[in-house]
């Protein structure tokens, strides 16, 4: 067998431990990749694939990136969810006997990047871990390394609940046990787009005791240990900067399942996956990146406690009334940098002087913020003002020590101000004096030699020298200087005196740079001690930012402060916060809604495109806005405090998954039925649409009855099964409402007005008309419809006007179309069409086909 070259052997050995990462193998000035790594990297990075002789018969696929620009390539790969193992040469190739020693020094992964240019400033960057326990519970740990923050949550009701919780969190990577069943792994990877890492060591380490001080459950400690052990093993760097983990009690917040998070487009839209068009887009007038991150957290976890919400309302109201002061507040916030991430980097030990200057400038805004907040006529805002404590000593330290324009590097001096440190001043003085002496020497020698162009210069190799051009050499007395270097048209000289001074200057400079570096590290340590204080300020500033954002948005869009009630929900002239923004010219039609003990289910009917879905989502969004402490889009709002919100969308409207089957729809409905309480809000939009009419209708009805009789959740149910409106008679707490559309001049006009009672007809054909289909075709469709309606009415009568279902009779009468032999095939086709199962577009297509046949 042909052997590998020694280097290739070394490569394969190291690669064996880095199976799920690209191995960046340092070879001189390049990081090289081989085999599959090379093939895949060449494709992902669009770089050239080459070959290298590895000792075997076939050469080895290879590609590489230059060491100095590696960061760009790493960034690209990390953004695509890959991991990169950096393998360095551990000795100078010149000194190496045999193959140069190499080791993996760091694993860069999507969840562990710290570099500012690889992080999205307006989003957290979580590495999470998941542990499962014998009792069926799961523990999730969220960690943002860039900030040093960790949160843990216990999920005791099964895997689905885990997914609901994880959905929409900015998790880039998740550490799991290799024992986690493969199907679950795949779900995490494919559905939630998370990079998985495997680590099974859950041993608690004493050195992390402080980090676990808030964790009051053994399972928390175990799960957190898995994450810490993984980080320690792969990152090979200190984790000193992590703060103690906090427990998130999920029962403390309104819970939104993942379907609701997605369907309600809270932080991103379904189709474009962007912020534009989401609730976040409307609510985000925050000034700082910290504010945006906090706003997202709030939207993800609306509150349940009335007092806490009212507190936010009070502050928003205060901000709302102080318009001038709020403008001042914006200005001050603009000068606040990302305190959270700055604190993270201080702790982590990778801040430079520029970061500390940013920190100083941010902290300098605190007195200004205090002053501005004190002006608002609202006790809670004044309390915020009092809580902002100015870290005067820290700011003084930074101000007296650091220059305002420091370089990026902390090892080249020019960081520390004059007057900060006596010794440093002496060195600088010495260096300055030396330079002064040299300048004087230049003058003196010019005069003595009468050579005007004589000059004293400096370079790194020869130090200080006196330069005389060849043309002037004859003016120079023999032996005045020692010759050092000959250039094409000049000679360079030195004198013992000059070298003596040079020695002093260079020493002083070297010492001062060295000293500056150490002083900088000292300052950094001082700042480190203030991290908790900085984090506290960061938290307060973020809150202030979000609440001023609520005030600004509420003012711009004329939102009002809702009231909470225990009995009923009553919204007057409510609007959909996003759609009203997207539509121009105040075109949005406001609507009322009311739900209480007597009426907890609304059944909404109306033609396609009339506004049923909008009306339902409007309620959910309004509830969420209220429970995060924002004002709401209506003229009057009495709200209930919802504990959970569920939304289900019928298959035909489910644009996202597309292939969403009826089964999925039913699973989702079941999820709502199993978890909802009387304090929940359930939105069922066209449920049962994914199956045949009677099937769908029967299921829809059974679901409504279940909610009505057993769950008592506040529910809105939209349906295109007009037959279901008969339920109003049999279910006490169900009320029909409909969205009005009017026929005007043979065309349907959508008024988007929600009224009591049931809708009387479906307007599918009129929608087709709006789409400008030929008049002859529309006419034909109208007559078919008329025919079908007659027939449909008869079948409904057959079915006993649905009271048939209401009474729970076991059988549904089979409807049979009398198959008359004489009938034309077209008529037969027409008879079998069921308009209720079709979208207007499908109906049009079908009609088009029929008409074509008729013409043949
Ligand atoms: P449905 O669910 O009844 O088919 P949608 O709720 O999807 O209808 O609404 C269809 C379109 O009608 C929306 O995209 C929006 O442009 C418009 N619309 C809905 N409600 C209103 C309203 N209250 N005022 C103005 N336009 C509305
Ligand atoms: Mg709809």
Automatic annotation (TrEMBL):
GO cellular component: cytosol
GO biological process: mismatch repair
Residues the entry annotates as binding ATP: 606-613
CDD domains the record matches: ABC_MutS1
GO terms of molecular function: ATP binding; ATP-dependent DNA damage sensor activity; damaged DNA binding; mismatched DNA binding
Gene3D superfamilies recorded: 1.10.1420.10, DNA repair protein MutS, domain I, MutS, connector domain, P-loop containing nucleotide triphosphate hydrolases
Keywords per UniProt: ATP-binding, DNA damage, DNA repair, DNA-binding, Nucleotide-binding
DNA mismatch repair proteins mutS family domain boundaries: 680-696
Record has Acetylation as a keyword: no
PANTHER family assigned: DNA MISMATCH REPAIR PROTEIN MSH1, MITOCHONDRIAL, DNA MISMATCH REPAIR PROTEIN MUTS FAMILY MEMBER
Homology family: Belongs to the DNA mismatch repair MutS family.
Function: This protein is involved in the repair of mismatches in DNA. It is possible that it carries out the mismatch recognition step. This protein has a weak ATPase activity.
Protein's name according to its UniProt entry: DNA mismatch repair protein MutS
Name of the gene encoding the protein in the UniProt record: mutS
């Amino acid at each position: 067998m042909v052997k590998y070259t020694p280097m290739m052997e070394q490569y394969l050995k190291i690669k064996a431990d880095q199976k799920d990462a690209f191995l960046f193998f340092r070879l001189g000035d390049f990081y090289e990749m081989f085999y599959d790594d090379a093939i895949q990297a060449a494709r992902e990075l669009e770089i050239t694939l080459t070959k290298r002789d590895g000792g075997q018969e076939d050469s080895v696929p290879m590609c590489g990136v230059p060491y100095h620009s590696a960061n760009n390539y790493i960034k690209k790969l990390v953004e695509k969810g890959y991991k990169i193992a950096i393998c360095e040469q551990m000795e100078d190739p010149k000194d190496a006997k045999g193959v140069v020693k190499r080791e993996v020094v760091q694993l860069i992964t999507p969840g562990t990047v710290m570099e500012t240019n690889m992080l999205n400033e307006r989003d957290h960057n979580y590495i999470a871990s998941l542990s499962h326990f014998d009792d069926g519970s799961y523990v999730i740990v969220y960690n943002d390394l860039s900030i040093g923050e960790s949160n843990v949550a216990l999920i005791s009701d099964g895997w689905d609940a885990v997914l609901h919780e994880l959905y929409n969190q900015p998790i880039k990577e998740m550490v799991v046990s290799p024992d986690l069943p493969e199907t679950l792994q795949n779900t995490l990877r494919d559905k939630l787009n998370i990079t998985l890492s495997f680590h099974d060591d859950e041993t608690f380490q004493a050195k992390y005791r402080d980090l676990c001080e808030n964790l009051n459950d053994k399972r928390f400690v175990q799960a957190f240990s898995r994450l810490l052990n993984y980080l320690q093993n792969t990152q090979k760097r200190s984790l000193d900067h992590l703060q103690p983990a906090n427990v998130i009690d999920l029962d403390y917040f309104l819970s939104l399942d993942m379907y609701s998070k997605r369907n309600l487009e809270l932080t991103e839209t379904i189709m474009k996956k962007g912020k534009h068009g989401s609730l976040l887009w409307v609510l985000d007038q925050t000034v700082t990146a910290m504010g945006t991150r906090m706003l997202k957290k709030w939207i993800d976890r609306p509150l349940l406690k009335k007092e806490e919400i009212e507190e936010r309302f009070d502050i928003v109201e205060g901000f709302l009334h102080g318009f001038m002061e709020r403008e001042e507040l914006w200005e001050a916030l603009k000068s606040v940098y990302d305190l959270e991430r700055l604190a993270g980097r201080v702790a982590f030990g990778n801040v430079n002087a520029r970061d500390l200057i940013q920190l100083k400038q941010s902290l300098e805004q605190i007195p200004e913020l205090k002053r501005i907040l004190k002006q608002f006529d609202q006790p809670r805002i004044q309390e915020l003002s009092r809580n902002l404590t100015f870290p005067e000593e820290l700011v003084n330290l930074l101000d007296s020590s650091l220059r305002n324009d420091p370089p990026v590097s902390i090892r080249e001096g020019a960081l520390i101000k004059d007057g900060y440190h006596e010794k440093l001043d002496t060195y600088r003085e010495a260096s300055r004096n030396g330079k002064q002496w040299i300048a004087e020497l230049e003058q003196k020698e010019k005069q003595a030699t009468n050579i005007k162009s004589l000059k004293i210069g400096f370079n790194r190799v020869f130090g200080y020298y006196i330069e005389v051009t060849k043309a002037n050499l004859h003016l120079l007395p023999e032996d005045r200087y020692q010759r050092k270097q000959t250039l094409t048209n000049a000679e360079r000289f030195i004198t013992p005196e000059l070298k003596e001074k040079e020695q002093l200057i260079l020493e002083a400079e070297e010492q001062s740079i060295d000293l500056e570096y150490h002083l900088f590290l000292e300052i950094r340590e001082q700042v480190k001690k203030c991290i908790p204080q900085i984090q506290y300020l960061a938290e307060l500033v973020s809150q202030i930012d979000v609440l001023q954002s609520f005030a600004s948005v509420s003012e711009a869009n004329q939102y009002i402060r809702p009231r909470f009630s225990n009995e009923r929900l009553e919204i007057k002239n409510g609007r959909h916060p996003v759609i009203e923004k997207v539509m121009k010219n105040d075109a949005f039609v406001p609507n009322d809604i009311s739900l209480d003990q007597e009426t907890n289910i609304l059944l909404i009917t109306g033609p396609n495109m009339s506004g049923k879905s909008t009306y339902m989502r409007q309620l959910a969004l309004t509830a969420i806005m209220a429970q995060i402490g924002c004002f709401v889009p209506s003229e009057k709002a009495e709200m209930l405090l919802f504990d959970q919100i569920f939304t289900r969308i019928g298959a035909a409207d489910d644009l996202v998954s597309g292939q969403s089957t009826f089964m999925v729809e039913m699973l989702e409905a079941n999820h709502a039925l199993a978890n909802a309480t009387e304090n929940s809000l359930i939105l069922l939009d066209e449920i049962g649409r994914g199956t045949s009419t009677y099937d769908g209708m029967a299921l829809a009805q059974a679901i409504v009855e279940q909610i009505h009789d057993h769950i008592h959740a506040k529910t809105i149910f939209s349906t295109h099964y007009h037959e279901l409106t008969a339920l109003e008679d049999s279910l006490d707490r169900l009320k029909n409402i409909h969205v009005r559309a009017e026929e005007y001049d043979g065309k349907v006009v959508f008024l988007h007005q929600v009224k009591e009672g049931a809708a009387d007809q479906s307007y599918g054909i009129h929608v087709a008309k709006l789409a400008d289909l030929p008049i002859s075709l529309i006419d034909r469709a109208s007559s078919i419809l008329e025919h079908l309606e007659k027939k449909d009415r008869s079948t409904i009568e057959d079915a006993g006007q649905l009271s048939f279902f209401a009474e729970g009779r076991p059988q549904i009468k089979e409807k049979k179309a009398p198959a008359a032999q004489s009938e034309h095939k077209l008529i037969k086709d027409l008879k079998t069409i069921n308009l209720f199962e079709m979208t207007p577009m499908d109906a049009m297509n079908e009609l088009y086909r029929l008409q074509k046949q008729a013409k043949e």
